[in-house]
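thread from #wetlab-drylab

HS: before we spend reagent money on co-crystallization trials with adenosine-5'-triphosphate, can we at least see a predicted complex? here's what I'd submit
DV: go for it
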Amino acid sequence: MSHLLEAVDLFKTFRPRRAWPWSKKSVALEPTSFTLEAGETLAIMGETGSGKSTLSKIIAGVEAPSGGELYLNGQKLNYAQSKRRCQNIRMVFQDSDKSLNQQLTVGQQLEEPLLFNRDMPSSERNQLINSTLRKVGLLAEHAAFYPHMLSTGQKQRVAIARAIILDPQIVVADEALVALDPSVRAQIINLMLDLQKDMGISYIIVTHSPQIVKHIADKILILYRGKMIAFNETERLLTEKQQPYVETLLHEHLTNHSQITGNSSAKVTE
Ligand SMILES: Nc1ncnc2c1ncn2[C@@H]1O[C@H](COP(=O)(O)OP(=O)(O)OP(=O)(O)O)[C@@H](O)[C@H]1O
Protein backbone atom coordinates (compact mmCIF):
# COMPACT_ATOMS: atom_id res chain seq x y z
CA MET A 1 0.00 0.00 0.00
CA SER A 2 1.32 3.44 -0.87
CA HIS A 3 1.61 6.26 1.63
CA LEU A 4 -0.77 9.22 1.50
CA LEU A 5 2.25 11.49 1.05
CA GLU A 6 5.85 10.53 0.54
CA ALA A 7 8.70 13.01 0.22
CA VAL A 8 11.91 11.66 -1.25
CA ASP A 9 15.05 13.78 -0.94
CA LEU A 10 13.24 17.12 -1.28
CA PHE A 11 15.73 19.96 -1.14
CA LYS A 12 15.84 23.69 -1.71
CA THR A 13 18.61 26.17 -2.40
CA PHE A 14 18.20 29.94 -2.59
CA ARG A 15 20.42 32.63 -3.95
CA PRO A 16 21.00 34.73 -0.81
CA ARG A 17 19.02 37.97 -0.62
CA ARG A 18 21.10 41.00 -1.73
CA ALA A 19 23.69 38.73 -3.38
CA TRP A 20 25.52 39.02 -6.70
CA PRO A 21 24.11 36.83 -9.49
CA TRP A 22 27.29 34.72 -9.39
CA SER A 23 27.18 34.20 -5.61
CA LYS A 24 26.90 30.65 -4.39
CA LYS A 25 23.38 29.49 -3.53
CA SER A 26 22.66 28.73 0.10
CA VAL A 27 20.95 25.54 1.20
CA ALA A 28 17.62 26.19 2.95
CA LEU A 29 16.64 22.51 3.03
CA GLU A 30 18.97 19.55 2.65
CA PRO A 31 17.56 16.37 1.04
CA THR A 32 14.62 15.42 3.26
CA SER A 33 12.48 12.28 3.14
CA PHE A 34 9.41 11.41 5.18
CA THR A 35 5.99 9.80 4.91
CA LEU A 36 2.51 10.78 6.05
CA GLU A 37 -0.53 8.49 6.32
CA ALA A 38 -4.24 9.29 6.06
CA GLY A 39 -5.69 10.92 9.17
CA GLU A 40 -2.26 11.53 10.72
CA THR A 41 -0.77 14.77 12.01
CA LEU A 42 2.87 15.51 11.34
CA ALA A 43 4.51 18.37 13.23
CA ILE A 44 7.55 20.11 11.76
CA MET A 45 9.74 21.69 14.44
CA GLY A 46 13.03 23.54 14.52
CA GLU A 47 14.51 26.86 15.47
CA THR A 48 14.11 30.03 13.37
CA GLY A 49 15.65 29.66 9.94
CA SER A 50 15.86 25.86 10.12
CA GLY A 51 13.80 25.38 6.93
CA LYS A 52 10.33 24.63 8.34
CA SER A 53 8.45 27.14 6.17
CA THR A 54 10.50 26.19 3.12
CA LEU A 55 9.52 22.52 3.53
CA SER A 56 5.85 23.29 4.20
CA LYS A 57 5.66 25.64 1.20
CA ILE A 58 7.21 23.00 -1.07
CA ILE A 59 4.62 20.46 0.12
CA ALA A 60 1.78 22.93 -0.48
CA GLY A 61 3.16 23.90 -3.90
CA VAL A 62 3.78 27.53 -2.90
CA GLU A 63 7.51 27.06 -3.48
CA ALA A 64 9.18 24.84 -6.11
CA PRO A 65 11.76 22.37 -4.80
CA SER A 66 15.26 22.51 -6.23
CA GLY A 67 15.16 18.72 -6.37
CA GLY A 68 13.60 15.58 -4.96
CA GLU A 69 10.15 14.08 -5.38
CA LEU A 70 6.77 14.19 -3.75
CA TYR A 71 4.27 11.34 -4.14
CA LEU A 72 0.57 11.63 -3.33
CA ASN A 73 -1.18 8.24 -2.96
CA GLY A 74 1.79 6.69 -4.76
CA GLN A 75 1.58 9.01 -7.76
CA LYS A 76 4.29 11.57 -8.43
CA LEU A 77 3.13 15.12 -7.78
CA ASN A 78 4.98 17.64 -9.89
CA TYR A 79 5.26 21.31 -8.95
CA ALA A 80 3.36 22.31 -12.10
CA GLN A 81 0.32 20.13 -11.24
CA SER A 82 -1.34 22.96 -9.41
CA LYS A 83 -4.92 21.76 -9.90
CA ARG A 84 -4.26 18.27 -8.49
CA ARG A 85 -2.30 19.74 -5.61
CA CYS A 86 -4.89 22.43 -4.92
CA GLN A 87 -7.64 19.83 -4.63
CA ASN A 88 -5.65 17.59 -2.31
CA ILE A 89 -3.24 19.77 -0.35
CA ARG A 90 -4.27 23.16 1.04
CA MET A 91 -2.40 25.61 3.20
CA VAL A 92 -3.36 27.80 6.17
CA PHE A 93 -0.95 30.64 6.86
CA GLN A 94 0.14 32.26 10.12
CA ASP A 95 -1.42 35.64 9.57
CA SER A 96 -5.06 35.53 8.48
CA ASP A 97 -5.00 39.34 8.06
CA LYS A 98 -2.45 38.91 5.28
CA SER A 99 -3.78 35.69 3.78
CA LEU A 100 -7.40 36.89 3.53
CA ASN A 101 -8.27 39.48 0.91
CA GLN A 102 -9.62 42.51 2.80
CA GLN A 103 -11.56 43.68 -0.27
CA LEU A 104 -13.63 40.50 -0.65
CA THR A 105 -16.43 39.16 1.52
CA VAL A 106 -15.96 35.84 3.30
CA GLY A 107 -18.37 34.24 0.80
CA GLN A 108 -16.39 35.54 -2.18
CA GLN A 109 -13.13 34.21 -0.68
CA LEU A 110 -14.65 30.79 -0.15
CA GLU A 111 -16.14 30.81 -3.64
CA GLU A 112 -12.76 31.38 -5.34
CA PRO A 113 -11.38 27.84 -4.95
CA LEU A 114 -14.75 26.46 -6.10
CA LEU A 115 -14.74 28.62 -9.24
CA PHE A 116 -11.21 27.45 -10.11
CA ASN A 117 -11.58 23.79 -9.19
CA ARG A 118 -15.23 22.71 -9.37
CA ASP A 119 -17.79 22.85 -12.11
CA MET A 120 -20.91 23.55 -10.04
CA PRO A 121 -23.85 25.95 -10.36
CA SER A 122 -23.99 29.01 -8.16
CA SER A 123 -26.77 27.56 -5.94
CA GLU A 124 -24.58 24.52 -5.12
CA ARG A 125 -21.58 26.75 -4.48
CA ASN A 126 -23.63 28.80 -2.02
CA GLN A 127 -24.85 25.68 -0.26
CA LEU A 128 -21.28 24.39 0.07
CA ILE A 129 -20.08 27.78 1.36
CA ASN A 130 -22.85 27.81 3.98
CA SER A 131 -22.21 24.24 5.14
CA THR A 132 -18.44 24.84 5.29
CA LEU A 133 -18.95 27.98 7.39
CA ARG A 134 -21.05 25.91 9.79
CA LYS A 135 -18.39 23.18 9.89
CA VAL A 136 -15.86 25.70 11.19
CA GLY A 137 -18.25 27.10 13.79
CA LEU A 138 -19.39 30.21 11.89
CA LEU A 139 -22.84 31.14 10.61
CA ALA A 140 -24.10 31.20 7.02
CA GLU A 141 -24.60 34.97 7.55
CA HIS A 142 -20.82 35.41 7.92
CA ALA A 143 -20.57 34.92 4.13
CA ALA A 144 -21.56 38.58 3.74
CA PHE A 145 -18.93 39.86 6.20
CA TYR A 146 -15.60 41.44 5.25
CA PRO A 147 -12.51 40.25 7.18
CA HIS A 148 -12.24 43.51 9.18
CA MET A 149 -15.68 42.77 10.67
CA LEU A 150 -14.40 39.53 12.24
CA SER A 151 -12.32 38.72 15.33
CA THR A 152 -8.86 37.13 14.96
CA GLY A 153 -10.26 33.72 15.84
CA GLN A 154 -13.13 34.07 13.36
CA LYS A 155 -10.65 35.09 10.63
CA GLN A 156 -8.60 31.97 11.32
CA ARG A 157 -11.83 29.93 11.06
CA VAL A 158 -12.44 31.51 7.63
CA ALA A 159 -8.87 30.61 6.60
CA ILE A 160 -9.55 27.02 7.70
CA ALA A 161 -12.91 27.03 5.85
CA ARG A 162 -11.12 28.11 2.68
CA ALA A 163 -8.59 25.31 3.18
CA ILE A 164 -11.20 22.57 3.66
CA ILE A 165 -13.89 23.64 1.19
CA LEU A 166 -12.42 21.44 -1.56
CA ASP A 167 -12.37 18.46 0.83
CA PRO A 168 -8.56 18.07 0.70
CA GLN A 169 -6.64 15.07 2.01
CA ILE A 170 -3.91 17.22 3.58
CA VAL A 171 -3.93 20.65 5.25
CA VAL A 172 -0.56 22.32 5.83
CA ALA A 173 -0.66 24.88 8.65
CA ASP A 174 2.41 27.12 8.88
CA GLU A 175 2.44 28.61 12.39
CA ALA A 176 -1.32 29.04 12.00
CA LEU A 177 -1.83 29.09 15.77
CA VAL A 178 0.98 31.38 16.85
CA ALA A 179 -0.82 34.74 16.55
CA LEU A 180 -3.84 33.60 18.57
CA ASP A 181 -4.35 34.20 22.26
CA PRO A 182 -4.40 31.01 24.37
CA SER A 183 -8.17 30.53 24.65
CA VAL A 184 -8.76 31.14 20.92
CA ARG A 185 -5.80 28.86 20.14
CA ALA A 186 -7.39 26.08 22.18
CA GLN A 187 -10.68 26.54 20.29
CA ILE A 188 -8.95 26.40 16.91
CA ILE A 189 -6.98 23.28 17.89
CA ASN A 190 -10.20 21.60 18.98
CA LEU A 191 -11.84 22.62 15.69
CA MET A 192 -8.91 21.12 13.75
CA LEU A 193 -9.20 17.87 15.74
CA ASP A 194 -12.97 17.71 15.12
CA LEU A 195 -12.47 18.29 11.37
CA GLN A 196 -9.81 15.59 11.31
CA LYS A 197 -12.23 13.14 12.91
CA ASP A 198 -15.13 14.08 10.61
CA MET A 199 -13.26 14.48 7.33
CA GLY A 200 -10.19 12.26 7.80
CA ILE A 201 -7.85 15.15 7.07
CA SER A 202 -4.10 14.75 7.60
CA TYR A 203 -2.31 17.78 8.99
CA ILE A 204 1.23 18.99 8.55
CA ILE A 205 1.71 21.68 11.18
CA VAL A 206 4.70 23.94 11.58
CA THR A 207 5.04 25.00 15.19
CA HIS A 208 7.50 26.01 17.87
CA SER A 209 5.22 24.78 20.63
CA PRO A 210 6.09 21.42 22.23
CA GLN A 211 2.73 21.50 24.01
CA ILE A 212 0.73 21.67 20.78
CA VAL A 213 2.96 19.00 19.25
CA LYS A 214 2.47 16.62 22.16
CA HIS A 215 -1.25 17.18 22.08
CA ILE A 216 -1.98 16.65 18.40
CA ALA A 217 1.00 15.22 16.50
CA ASP A 218 1.33 11.54 15.63
CA LYS A 219 4.79 12.12 14.15
CA ILE A 220 7.42 14.81 14.50
CA LEU A 221 10.03 15.95 11.99
CA ILE A 222 12.82 18.10 13.38
CA LEU A 223 15.00 20.36 11.25
CA TYR A 224 18.28 21.93 12.29
CA ARG A 225 19.90 24.40 9.89
CA GLY A 226 18.08 22.85 6.95
CA LYS A 227 18.90 19.28 7.87
CA MET A 228 16.39 16.73 9.12
CA ILE A 229 17.83 15.44 12.38
CA ALA A 230 14.82 13.46 13.60
CA PHE A 231 11.66 11.94 12.14
CA ASN A 232 9.68 9.54 14.24
CA GLU A 233 6.43 8.84 16.06
CA THR A 234 5.76 11.41 18.79
CA GLU A 235 5.56 8.70 21.44
CA ARG A 236 8.97 7.30 20.55
CA LEU A 237 10.62 10.71 20.36
CA LEU A 238 9.23 11.55 23.79
CA THR A 239 10.07 8.30 25.52
CA GLU A 240 13.42 7.36 23.98
CA LYS A 241 16.68 9.17 24.66
CA GLN A 242 17.32 11.90 22.09
CA GLN A 243 20.22 14.16 21.24
CA PRO A 244 20.28 17.33 23.41
CA TYR A 245 18.91 19.69 20.72
CA VAL A 246 15.88 17.45 20.14
CA GLU A 247 15.32 17.08 23.90
CA THR A 248 15.34 20.88 24.30
CA LEU A 249 12.87 21.43 21.46
CA LEU A 250 10.51 18.78 22.76
CA HIS A 251 10.54 19.78 26.39
CA GLU A 252 11.39 23.44 26.79
CA HIS A 253 8.10 25.13 27.79
CA LEU A 254 6.55 22.07 29.38
CA THR A 255 6.51 23.21 32.99
CA ASN A 256 4.30 26.19 32.14
CA HIS A 257 1.66 24.12 30.41
CA SER A 258 1.35 21.01 32.49
CA GLN A 259 -2.42 20.92 31.88
CA ILE A 260 -1.84 19.73 28.33
CA THR A 261 -1.11 16.04 28.54
CA GLY A 262 0.23 13.55 26.06
CA ASN A 263 -3.31 12.21 25.63
CA SER A 264 -4.08 13.27 22.07
CA SER A 265 -7.77 12.41 22.27
CA ALA A 266 -8.29 14.95 25.07
CA LYS A 267 -9.32 18.48 24.18
CA VAL A 268 -7.10 21.44 25.00
CA THR A 269 -8.22 23.61 27.86
CA GLU A 270 -6.59 26.93 28.62
N1 LIG B 1 12.94 33.50 -0.65
C1 LIG B 1 14.11 33.28 -0.03
N2 LIG B 1 15.27 33.77 -0.54
C2 LIG B 1 16.45 33.55 0.07
N3 LIG B 1 16.59 32.83 1.21
C3 LIG B 1 15.47 32.34 1.77
C4 LIG B 1 14.17 32.54 1.19
N4 LIG B 1 13.25 31.91 1.97
C5 LIG B 1 13.92 31.35 3.01
N5 LIG B 1 15.25 31.61 2.87
C6 LIG B 1 16.30 31.16 3.78
O1 LIG B 1 16.17 29.76 3.97
C7 LIG B 1 16.43 29.41 5.33
C8 LIG B 1 15.24 28.68 5.91
O2 LIG B 1 14.16 29.61 6.00
P1 LIG B 1 12.69 29.18 6.51
O3 LIG B 1 11.82 30.39 6.41
O4 LIG B 1 12.26 27.96 5.79
O5 LIG B 1 12.99 28.82 8.04
P2 LIG B 1 11.93 28.60 9.21
O6 LIG B 1 12.45 27.43 9.99
O7 LIG B 1 10.57 28.50 8.67
O8 LIG B 1 12.12 29.92 10.07
P3 LIG B 1 10.99 30.70 10.95
O9 LIG B 1 10.69 29.84 12.13
O10 LIG B 1 11.69 31.98 11.31
O11 LIG B 1 9.81 30.93 10.05
C9 LIG B 1 16.76 30.69 6.05
O12 LIG B 1 18.16 30.84 6.11
C10 LIG B 1 16.15 31.77 5.18
O13 LIG B 1 16.85 32.98 5.27
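DV: The radius of gyration is 19 Å.
HS: ok that's useful, forwarding to the group
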